[in-house]
Amino acid sequence: MYVHILGTGGTISSRTRERAGATATDGAASLAGMLTAEVRTTDVLTTGSYLLTFTDLRILVKAVQDALADDDCVGVVVTHGTDTMEETAFLLDLVHTSAKPVVLTGAQRAADSSHPDGPDNLADAVAAAASPALRECGVLVCFAGQVRSARGVRKTQTWELTAFDGGTLVAEMRDGEAHVLARPRHHPPLPLPTESFDNVRVEIVPCFLGATPRVLAHVIDDGADGIVLAGTGIGNAGVGFVDEVARAVAAGIPVVLASRVAWGPVKPIYGNGGGVDLVGAGAIPSGDLNAPQSRMLMALLLGRGVGDKFADNFVAFT
């Protein structure tokens, strides 16, 4: 029995090069050399997560599925850059069908730094993936001794080692063992992404004090397949945004209303360009999903061609 480590790059595999900054160089086998557990390794990608594309994610999904299909594999670890880990983790969770854990981890410090955090994170992630206590918990993020559900997790620190918060705190890792605190909620899995997923365009449009709907208008005119509006507060934008949301929906471009606030649900409460008017114009509240995770769900659904059933399909996951 073994844990399969899939490498994708990121800071955990990066080394600092003169004039080039920290770049991903180490493969999964190099990272696994520090472990005592029984593991196998595969390099799927070697890149910073801020450079990943939907094509890359589809390839990773396939690699995870292939690894899980081996009866001798008890779980999968994905080493990944922290910048977009919350997005990849959520996508993997949306299509996850196995009882075996899939655990994402990474690092805030490069592998050749004086105090790298990658080795401890990887050791914890492998132990989590091998833990019978974490079966049926879906896709998880293991970082700085904490194991969190993919849904709702987000990076909250640019530099501190405790990089992630949110989601369900499923377990804490202590001396190589997972001490379970809670079980995450689950939805029925969605079908795996196909090649049509690669070219889906879902844009995130931010809202802020004094914002005009010009960016939203451009995104509509530029051919976006879907739009996530990162509203202020509990889900607000402004009077000018309402007409553009209505125009997008009339053109067959779904609009999801999320919030730029870290925690809490989106609810249509305010008028005068607020959530009540935006939802009235056809925007779909994201529930407790943040804008990046809303975008992942939206892209996966649109890649399936759900058409006029998009809203029902999206709301089922909020």
Automatic annotation (TrEMBL):
Sequence ranges assigned to domain Asparaginase/glutaminase C-terminal in this UniProt record: 201-306
Top-level division of the source organism's lineage: Bacteria
One biological-process term from Gene Ontology?
A: asparagine metabolic process
Name the UniProt key words of this record, in alphabetical order.
Hydrolase
Record bears the keyword Hydrolase = yes
Kindly list the GO molecular function terms attached to this UniProt entry. asparaginase activity
What PROSITE patterns does this protein map onto?
A: ASN_GLN_ASE_2, ASN_GLN_ASE_3
| Active site as annotated | T11 (o-isoaspartyl threonine intermediate), T82
Q: Name one Pfam family in it.
A: Asparaginase
**Domain L-asparaginase N-terminal positions:** 3-179
Annotated binding of substrate, by residue? S49, T82, D83
The protein's matches in InterPro entries, at most eight in alphabetical order, are given as:
AsnASE_II, Asp/glu_Ase-like_sf, Asparaginase/glutaminase-like, Asparaginase/glutaminase_AS2, Asparaginase_C, L-asparaginase_C, L-asparaginase_N, L-asparaginase_N_sf
Q: What's the family? A: Belongs to the asparaginase 1 family.
User: Know the name of this protein?
Assistant: Asparaginase
Task: State the organism of origin.
Answer: Arachnia propionica
